[in-house]
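Every protein is a chain of amino acids, and every chain bends into a shape of its own. The fold becomes a row of whole numbers, each drawn from a learned catalogue of backbone shapes. The protein below has been through that process, and both of its lines are reproduced in full.
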Amino acid sequence: MRSQIERIRASFQSSLASIDELLNFDRIVLDFAIQGLEQLTNTLKNQLKVTNPYLLADSNLKSLKNIREHDSMRIQYKRIFNQFLVLLVSHFASTVRDLFESAIDEAAKVDKFEKINRAKIEITLAELQKNAETISGGEFLSIQKNISFQDMQSIGRAFQEYFDIAVLKDAHVNNIIIAQACRHAIVHSGARFDKKLQTQVSSAKPRTIKPLVELDSEILFSPEEVKQVGESMKIYLERLFSELHSAFGAA
């Protein structure tokens, strides 16, 4: 199980790094443009000896540097940052699914996990012949038990039931809960913090992500909030990794 955990950890860290780069896409573009104008200006002044200000790019360069220094264009991208949250929640769900299903498959190989060894999966012969080489026992189990990996309550129940693991519900877990709920609202409900969403996250306290949100306001995630959610996900996964290490310790 150790090698599986390391693979899953590395994959999620890679996903976080990719999202972190995307969150700074505007700064990357501006830095590229500024560097190009600086090189052009130096060439015109030092090599071609151009002194006419109308033929130089000094004013444009100054404008771009001001935009970069004050992040004044970020407000234009505020809705794009929501999509990075959607992507982050999807990466997290995929990671937890992979972790759970891999752990089920590994646990089925040993005698320590009685609940898993006795777990039954209903499958027709046709389904077995079609999927035996492509779908593992862990995948069949998560599908048949209808485990949602975009819902912290469902995730918690799954690890509690099959591995007797209970991760403490704290601000990090609550941050993930509101991220998952907001992801659903962004995709399906016009990114509005409606009454349904308010009820859904009412017990997700304490949290550091959007602790106070006005009813019917637009959901807008800043790059800093997306990074905070990613950090909470990382901490939650590390706790799961540790608990699974302990569970498999003597297996």
User: Anything to note?
Assistant: Residues 77-248 form one domain.
